[in-house]
Write the structure tokens for this entry.
Amino acid sequence: MTSTPVSPAATATAATPASAAVPAAEPTDGTGLHGPVTAWFDAHARDLPWRRPEAGAWGVMVSEFMLQQTPVSRVLPVYEQWLARWPRPADLAAEAPGEAVRAWGRLGYPRRALRLHAAASAIQERHGGDVPREHAQLLALPGVGEYTAAAVASFAYGQRHAVLDTNVRRVFARAVAGRQYPPNATTAAERKLARALLPDDEGVAAKWAAATMELGALVCTARGPECARCPIAAQCAWRLAGSPAHEGPARRTQSYAGTDRQVRGKLLAVLREAVHPVPQVILDAVWDEPVQRARALDGLVADGLVEPLHGGRYRLPLT
């Protein structure tokens, strides 16, 4: 059985009506969660382009790169433009990596664009332009880590893999481990739990991976979980324990204003809009503080996102 391609919505805020909670019951080891969660997903999953059959494995892979630390609402227009321009890995591989950075726009973390371009080139060279099916082959692609390899294998090809993103980790922490939040970094214990909770059937396991992500994105959210709308509230260990407050290290928060990330983004914005190489004086006008500006520009060059030229000019990379 092969599932329809699906993907996470890591920070989405949209919500769809879900089933009402039932009276509290005894906590479970998690094996009773499969049916309620996948049934909820069947009824309430959002219609997203990478979940449609026509998206194919390449569409799923593009969405996975774009959705890392980026909300669905910001990804959607860029994703659609990207696939219209580069419907196959070969199409992207044939262009300069700087064009990938340009098309990435303001999604943030633009090194993802370079990594996706490198992955497309490797797919073209090693696999004849087709996104490989095997997890090991996916993991061997540049820019593809354990999460992305598992996600593409699961969502594009309906395979049985533990796919752990922030939303899934939070659902498991609450429903099974009885904690408000998972650890700041994924642990071996979390991976072991995720593997233990996988349904045996491949198709069901793929749907389970997608469904737990959707549940975390729409209902079991970080700041405002809507337990009354959750299909597994009656089995949730955290809820049955009285929803105890988080006792571990403080949750990480990401700032942006005034950081090197903001300066890098401003510099890249100028280069993305430019048809020709940009003189240093134009980039100097982007940010008043010269030391931070120079550090940000040096970082962009070191990351391969910007190419320095003779005469103090800069452009997006051609190779």
